[in-house]
Amino acid sequence: MGSREYDHLYCSRVCCTGGIKNALRLKDKHPEVDVYILYRDVRTYRTKEKYYREGRDKGIIFVRYDEDRKPEVRSDRNGLIVKVRDPILERDLDLAADLLVLSSYMIPSEGTEDLAMMLKVPLNTDGFKSTQLLVMVDAALD
What we know:
The protein has 142 residues and is α+β, with helices and mostly antiparallel strands. Helices cover 30% and strands 20% of the residues. The model has no long low-confidence stretch (mean pLDDT 83).
């Protein structure tokens, strides 16, 4: 949510993977639950593609949407309804949701450049450390 738009044109490189991993945890604990991941495009870097494939295998439903037709959320007396235009089916879907989780973009913390210079760690053009560090941090969270 919010990645690669307006002021944040970059990809944070961890949001999609984090969202899929959380969906997998939910499916592991409650296999009967319908889980939908709405995405503009899924970016799972390096070895993280395995989570996307595992999610598909476990029944997580991935629904792509176009940038100019973002999902809309409304509530009614029964709860939340997420409306999304599925470009493959060429129709709108109304998904009843008990829980809505947003995977938001990330921004570098204030002082990141100073710390990187002290530690002699190179940053990419978006102000983040290279992918290798993100992979190590992500592996530590597993």
